[in-house]
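Dear colleague,

Following up on Tuesday's group meeting, I ran the structure prediction for the two-component complex that the binding team flagged. I've pasted the input sequences exactly as they went in, so you can double-check that nothing got truncated or mislabelled along the way. The structure tokens for the whole assembly follow below. Feel free to forward this to whoever is handling the docking comparison.

Inputs:
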Amino acid sequence: MQPDERALCADLKSARFLSGEDRGRWQYHDLNWPYLFVNVRAKDGRNFTLRLDCSGYPGNPPTGTFWDLTTGGRLDFNKWPTGGERIRLALNPSWKEGNALYIPCDRDSIIGHDNWLTQYPQMIWNAIKGVSMYLEIVYDLLQSRDYVCAAAN
Amino acid sequence: MKNRVYVQSEFFLDLKLVEVEDGATIEELKQACMALFPPQSGEIEIHLFAEDDDEYYESHHKVEHLKKPHGIRVHLHRCKHIAVTVRFAGNSVSHEFRPATTIGRIREWAGDRLGMQSNDIAEHVLQIVVNSEQPEVDVHIGSLAKYPACSVEFDLVPAHRING
């Protein structure tokens, strides 16, 4: 096992990661290196699976997209979380063709956004907080007022 | 059966874990938590609090009394209360909280006292006045105040929208 995979495995047993699971915010699904699959809970109870590419972890931040576990491919854009401005900006399928989330702690999205370092310092990747930081930011978006809940059946 | 216990304290910044047996007492849990403290913390009088819980637990009480649906979460601090002030739009509100009170709960309390709707409260965050840091909602207020300074001041500010 390479150091990046070993570091991620250690973080999956960390207090931060286990705490998020115990609070019902996310749930580990699988690790198929370098991809980590975690289900993140939205405010209407839906789970969205994130696939995080964790190569170079934790020195390099992960980059993530929503994943469909049944097809084994990226989640269809019409199934991505939707809602108000906060959701549309951050969880934007047209950004990087849906291969990265538009959040400051994403490895691919921080490139070219030096202004984010001062604008959103608390969302810049912090290797000490690790993968839980990425999950916490996505969870927070999925719990926000701007998230549109699924229509009742 | 082993119980997983999440621990926060004025003595460390990050969340930590200890494991104790079902029948363990509060005193035994306290000793297990204090083993996480830096060596220089020495002989001190410290209090154990359960997260967002106003109950007072005696040393002989069992750890199982602390169980909540989201696990057992405690805080160890030398202060019994933390004086909190929250400023927003020219107004301010103050209250003394137990050190194990989460930032999320304090935000709810402050927003409510300041006349905000619950949906609006969730779109704001607490920002520490002295350093502009925005602690996460699960952080215990005690982690932000080191004895003998048992107080913290916040501004309630809008949550960031990522753009640009």
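The CA atoms of residues 53 and 116 of chain A lie 21 Å apart.

Cheers,
M.
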